[in-house]
Amino acid sequence: MQIFAHRGSSGTRPENTLPAFAEAVRIGVDGIELDVQLTKDQQLIVMHDEEVNRTTDGKGAIVNKTLAEIKKLNAGSWFSEDYSSTKVPTLKEVLDLLAMRNFRGILAIELKTDKEEYPGIEEKVSDLMTSQKWPFTYWYSSFNMSSLERMYALEPEAHIDFIMGKSEKKPPMAMERGFIKGIHPNKEWVWKHEAEIADFPLAVRPWTINTEDEMRQCLACGVTGIFTDFPELAASIKRNK
């Protein structure tokens, strides 16, 4: 079972920040997941929400802010005053950190295009990812199937996964497209389909698996991987299963 640090080690560090990603590398996770959005001046930044309100001291939509404006924000104090100097990272800054730390796992890049379309984001991400060789493997994922189709057209050899909630209509959508390698469903979908997971035709990696009981349940039913805010706990449970 692959362990993916969801937005980095986001249970112990402010999510989607360099400290969270550095901690995930230290733990030795199989993979790191992050979210990519596009600023007003067409810069790729790493943040989950379409607005900066929840994880910074600012307010407003990313699409209405320049990178310079976003870089002025405090992205750590909401989590702990220990991270009061933490900034919102660009995708390039995260890639450089992972390369510097010689991360050898998988970077799962989620394109946050399910609410904001961010025209051209796929090309920008692809151009950056193919601009050099990285020590790690990278994958693409999104809730937005159109976005994934665009990524497939740009990088037909890339590993592409479909993120979904609990809808029974979504897995067939993924299976109809030969380029989709796996699904990332809400954990409730997995609990409902536990008996089918081992023989499911696509890889299944649920989110967000944060308790010891959930982690053991995922190990027992044979999911391919999990996304967790607590990768160190998951790694310990996996080692001692």
TrEMBL record:
InterPro entries: GP_PDE_dom (IPR030395), PLC-like_Pdiesterase_TIM-brl (IPR017946). Residues 1-238 form the GP-PDE domain. It comes from the Bacteria. This is Glycerophosphodiester phosphodiesterase. It comes from Candidatus Enterococcus willemsii.
